[in-house]
Amino acid sequence: MSEDLLYTVDNQIGHIILNRPHRRNALTFDMYQRIGEICATVGTESDSNQVKVLILSGNGDAAFAAGTDISQFQNFTGASDGIRYEENMEFVLNQIDACNVPTIAALNGFVTGGGAGIASSCSIRIGSEDLKVGVPIARTLGNCLAIGTLRRFVALIGLARTRYILLTAQLIDGQEASTAGFINELLTNKTAVMKRAFELAESIKTFAPLTLKASIMSLNRLQKAPMIPSDEDIVEMCYGSDDFKEGVKAFFEKRKPDWQGN
Length: 262
Prior knowledge:
Layout: E1 5-10, E2 13-18, H1 29-41, E3 53-58, E4 63-66, H2 79-97, E5 103-107, E6 110-112, H3 114-121, E7 124-128, E8 132-134, H4 147-157, H5 159-168, E9 172-173, H6 174-180, E10 185-187, H7 190-204, H8 209-223, H9 232-239, H10 242-252
Helix pairs in contact: 1-2, 2-3, 2-9, 4-5
């Protein structure tokens, strides 16, 4: 397994660690794929470790995950790349949603972009006071979120607050994330978060597994009951634009993007 993502199991508790602290744990496509594979395996007959609870955290004090590593976008040539990326993202987030065991996101620091998407797909989220949660892509990249990801955010923090963080490109802090419902428990620092995550895991793993699985399945079906609308035209508009190319270029040139709206 790549050292960018570490996976350990101890006493039926799985632990995924995003291990790129030098990049605020920005995610590569391979990391997304591996997270999805682990979530699709635990709690099934294919899981030799018989994992009963899965914890996800980031290495270091700066971030859980500061979104997708922007270098992954450098080879994008048009809208079709954006559509394929968002389809793959939705596939991975659905694998986390549908994980057969409870998933606990242990959050600290930056939880942005794809990192926020992963966190929103977990069963339980706990975080530290230094949280910075949001999706500032209107200020940085000029791409967009797929509607499936938006639905997760709206389910957690409501339409009005989701609209606010997207249109202002602002990050909410730990206290607001707690008030908004993005995190279930707010703790002082990362050490306290990790301690609490394992306490929860130890408790949850003693519960009836079929009841936990039934709860996860039923809540997922309830959340996704309405037909999700198509968003390919929206994704094409952003990822196929000159502005998106400018956003990626400006990031590596360490300057503010010159948005043209085309």
